[in-house]
Amino acid sequence: MLAGLALVLTACGTPASPAAPTATPTSRPYAGPLWVAPDPALHLEDDPGAAGRVVTCDQPVLGGSVAEPFSIGGEVRESPDAALREARDEGQWSGYDDDGMREVRREPDRALYTYESGGRVLQAVVVRHGRVLPGRGAGADGIAWWVESSARCDVVEYRDGLAESYGSEVWTDAAGHRISSQVVTSSTSDGDCLADGTRVLYLGNGDEGRRAYLRNTADYPKNVGEPFQADVPLPADAVDSGYRHGEERLWFAPDRRRAYVGGPDRVELWPLETEVLGCA
Predict the structure, then answer these.
(1) Are 54 and 28 in contact (CB under 8 A)?
(2) Cβ–Cβ < 8 Å for 219, 198
(3) Can you give the residue range of the structural domain that contains 219?
(4) What confidence tens digit (pLDDT) does each residue in 194-248 have?
(5) Keywords for this entry (predicted)?
(6) What predicted TM-score, i.e. pTM, was given to this entire model?
């Protein structure tokens, strides 16, 4: 995911000497505080804290924070680098391309790591050297390094193909602009959790709730109100969502209990999930 170099080419007249590669410009270094007071309107696990001020996202920032003293699951470490790796391994923060994370600022009790692409900071992590509750791996003084706040942009803001490599299918509007995965996304199971080939369309997220629609429902008849249908005419009252995935278009029934995926003449009927699917 490291940003590539752009080559300047000339196509007319006398061949010119190759221009020197131009590096993608980097963002202005963050000079703000590495700790900010929690947002009272958010749960701490949904509050990106100081890390949220570092990233430059088009979509709403995703992230969370941990209060001192450190008391959540997982271990703490003796260095900020090790603490960053431990937190990722324990699933305490979600990001992409760990090898691309770089320490860009160090203070006595905090370190800032960022990942940049295309001249923007897409993810940031603040690692804290602070108090730890007993039993979490700190030394005798009860002080160690641990992730205090983390933030990242929506997966659709990263390079082409990254979302798909993580199993997330990116939808766009009619003009080809990517839609946030927090608004609409879909995925096809590789058999690790759901039955192999099961495809699920997700609408919405967070406090507004998330609706899911299933394709290939034969393995989950109790989780939907009706079976999937592979080839039906598009109903006259279907509501166009405006969303696209390649050649696929998406409509909904007026009551939102059905999704229609396909073309304007023939579509697949994906029923609404009525009982939440989960891994065994």
Answers:
(1) no
(2) yes
(3) 163-271
(4) 899 999 999 987 545 789 999 989 999 999 999 999 999 999 999 999 999 999 9
(5) Signal
(6) 0.79
